[in-house]
Structures are given as structure tokens and as C-alpha cells.
Design goal:
Elements: E1 25-30, H1 32-35, E2 36-37, E3 42-43, H2 45-60, E4 64-69, H3 72-79, H4 89-112, E5 118-123, H5 126-129, H6 131-146, E6 150-155, H7 169-179, E7 184-189, E8 210-211, H8 216-221, H9 228-231, H10 234-246, E9 250-255, E10 270-273, H11 282-290, E11 295-299, H12 301-308, E12 318-323, E13 330-334, E14 340-345, H13 350-356, H14 364-368, E15 382-384
Parallel strand pairs: 1-4, 1-7, 4-6, 5-6, 7-9, 8-10, 11-13
Antiparallel strand pairs: 2-3, 9-10, 11-12, 13-14, 14-15
Helix pairs in contact: 2-4, 3-4, 7-10, 7-11, 10-11
């Protein structure tokens, strides 16, 4: 595991430039635009071969490498000769069924040229949301790594629906990385990192080389939801960074628009998202990186201090309830400034949480008519940023 030096919240340098040699288990996310030539409707075989060579080099050096690969829908629509433009959900699912065969074969052949065996793993949101399925998925991937295979993972687009799908492989890759206790998540992108403003022709935008903590200012650099920059994918990469770093996994965004893209990690322009090397229990890692938040609790400054002092979140410290969550769902915990303090499993439904926010735990029985838990979120069910 990398030992990171001190840095500020948005940009800075470390005393040691990270490289892949600092990490033992690495997840590499590959997007459709890097893997598939949309104009020709075919795979970029030469680029894939160069990436496979990089993976083989890491594998020979006794490192575990996992791949999260997009491209099934893009390949499927090319094989089926579907017209350009958006696809209905059922069309995307059918295209994925066709394209996944080509995608799996391409990875198998590219890695096979180096004597590596590829293992295809298709996952859905439920495979990380439900604890038993999460453990089953982790066990399967762990066995592939034990056998020195390279797991090639993708969302199961043939059965995922609008309501339950991940929707982007950046966050899927972050969930896989945390599930498998990876040291590093590499997001190969069509951009070389996070910039302090949208890059333009005037050269005013500056690359942020290191992010020590994802603050509202860092989120603002990614662009507002629905903006041109956000549609380009940076917003989902920041969300992936939250998932990864909260659970103890470092992340780097670097350009994949070069041959042998992994060889330049640590030397080429990129943005590192680093995490404190604090131990994270298996349960808290699951909460931090593998559950989709269903809402949020905004808390006052006193409650923020109490949580950072090791206390549970009590109803009295909650000033606002957001979302339609149920008891036991994962929720975000935000401070009064909007910054994410952590996330955890809430002990009350949203309606009941709204009724008891700001009130003493002793008032719960009087307000709700039943004796609930003293805590809104118990300390054992709460993960703070940096834990």
C-alpha cells in the first residue's frame, strides 16, 4: 500500500510520485470510447493489444489486475447494424447480449496471447447492495485471482433496468475495487485528469495533480449535473473517487488515448485521489463503497464534531432530511456547509426521521408512538471520510 505524504485539499505534490509499483492489487477501468471505434463500429484491436501487454507485465510482477470493461452495447449495436442515436432500454439490453460475446472474446484473445486466462464476471447493483450476494461475488473474483486469472468485469446490461443499474462503469469500478480490497483504481479516460475549470483553447485551465480530500470545491470543478463537462463523465469520476477513497482505495484518472496507457501512470499528466492509510473493517468497507445512498441527513456543526469524536448520530443533531429512504438504507451525512461527512445505515424511515429531527432521543416514543433506537445512525453503522 502506498504511504502518501501530506497534501492540501485540492492540489499539491507528494514527496514521492506514485507509480503502479506502489500497489499490489489494481483495478483498471476501460471506457467504451477507448475500446470501440464508434465510426467503424469495431474494436480498437491495436490499442487493446497494447493494454494487454501492460497488464501482462504487471501480472508477471506478481500483482493482481482486475479489469472493468465497457463496450458491450456499442459492439452489439454495430453487429446488429442499429441506427445511430439513443436506444430504448430493451434495445440496449438486446444489443448488450450480442456485444458481450464479442467483448469477452476480444479480452480472452488479447490476454491469451500472453498466456493469461480471462474470467468474465457480470454484475448488477444487487450484487453489491445485498450482503450475501456481495460476499458471493467477492468470493468468485477472489478465486479467479487465486488461480492467477484476470477477471474482466462489466455491468450485466442484459438484465439491468433503468431503476437499478449503475449507469456508468466509473462507479461500478470503484465498487469492485472496494469489494476486492484493491490498493488502486485506475480510470483510463479520454481526458488526462481533473482541471480547475473546463479546459479551453486559452490554456487557462490548470490540471489538479493531487486531491487529498473531495470537497465541495473539488466537486464544483467537475461541473454541475447536466452540464457539458458533467456529461463528459468527470462528475461520475468524482463520485467514483468518493466511493474508492472513503473505503481505503487510491484512485488515479489518466489518459487512455495512448498506446500502453498503464506504462505512463505516475509519470504522465494525471490526477491522484489519495486516501489515508487507516484500516477499514469489512463491514464498514461494504457500507462506504458498496451501497447506493438513498437520501441524506444534514447535521449541525456540533453533531459533526461529535461524530469525529467517535459518537453516534443522534436525532438532535439532524437539521434536514432528504430523500425517500427506508430503515436500514444507506444515506449520506452532510455537514451544515453541504460537505459530505460520511455515510451510514439509518435506523428510521425518512418520514419518521423527519418527525424526530432536532429532538431529544427521549422524545422518540412520544412523537412516534413506539420506542425506536436512540441513535439515528449508530457509530458501528457509520463510516466517516478518511476512515
Amino acid at each position: 500500500m502506498l504511504h502518501s505524504a501530506a497534501m492540501d485539499n485540492s492540489a499539491g505534490t507528494t514527496s514521492k510520485t506514485p507509480s503502479l509499483n506502489d500497489f499490489r492489487r489494481i483495478v483498471v477501468k476501460v471506457g467504451s470510447s477507448l475500446l470501440v471505434d464508434s465510426s467503424a463500429g469495431c474494436l480498437k484491436h491495436e490499442w487493446l493489444a497494447s493494454l494487454a501487454t501492460d497488464i501482462a507485465g504487471l501480472h508477471k510482477d506478481k500483482r493482481d489486475v482486475l479489469v472493468v470493461s465497457s463496450g458491450a452495447i456499442a459492439l452489439g449495436r454495430a453487429v446488429l447494424k442499429l441506427p445511430p442515436g439513443g436506444l430504448k432500454l430493451e434495445d440496449s439490453q438486446a444489443a448488450a447480449a450480442v456485444g458481450q460475446i464479442s467483448l469477452a472474446r476480444a479480452w480472452s484473445e488479447a490476454l491469451g496471447r500472453h498466456g493469461l486466462t480471462a474470467g468474465q464476471v457480470l454484475v448488477t447493483l444487487g450484487d453489491t447492495e445485498e450482503r450475501r450476494r456481495y460476499l458471493n461475488a467477492r468470493s468468485t473474483i477472489a478465486k479467479l485471482l487465486e488461480w492467477r486469472s484476470v477477471p474482466v468485469i462489466n455491468e450485466n446490461d442484459t438484465v439491468a433496468t433503468t431503476e437499478i443499474r449503475y449507469g456508468d462503469n466509473d462507479r461500478l469500478a470503484a465498487r469492485v475495487a472496494t469489494m476486492m480490497s484493491a490498493d488502486l483504481l485506475v480510470l483510463l479516460s479520454d481526458v488526462d485528469g481533473l482541471y480547475d475549470r473546463p479546459p479551453g483553447g486559452d490554456g487557462a485551465a490548470k490540471l489538479v495533480p493531487v486531491v487529498g480530500r473531495i470537497t465541495p470545491d473539488i466537486e464544483a470543478m467537475a461541473g454541475a449535473s447536466g452540464s457539458e463537462l458533467a456529461r463528459g463523465g468527470m462528475l461520475t469520476k468524482i463520485e467514483a473517487g468518493k466511493i474508492a477513497t472513503t473505503a481505503g482505495t487510491h484512485m488515479v484518472i489518466t489518459s487512455g488515448r495512448v498506446q500502453h496507457p498503464l506504462r505512463t501512470v505516475g509519470s504522465a499528466r494525471c490526477t491522484w485521489f489519495l486516501t489515508p492509510a487507516n484500516p477499514v473493517t469489512a463491514r464498514k468497507k461494504w457500507i462506504a463503497g458498496s451501497l447506493e445512498p438513498r437520501g441524506a441527513l444534514v447535521i449541525d456543526a456540533g453533531a459533526v464534531n461529535a461524530l469525529r469524536g467517535g459518537k453516534s448520530l443522534l436525532p438532535a443533531g439532524v437539521i434536514k432530511v432528504e430523500g425517500a429512504f427506508g430503515r436500514g438504507d444507506a444515506v449520506l451525512v452532510r455537514g451544515p456547509d453541504g460537505h459530505e461527512v460520511g455515510r451510514g445505515l439509518v435506523a428510521y424511515d425518512a418520514d419518521d426521521a423527519e418527525k424526530i429531527k432536532g429532538r431529544s432521543s427521549a422524545d422518540v416514543l412520544l412523537i412516534l408512538g413506539y420506542t425506536g433506537r436512540t441513535e439515528m445512525i449508530h457509530r458501528d453503522d457509520l463510516v466517516l471520510g478518511g476512515e
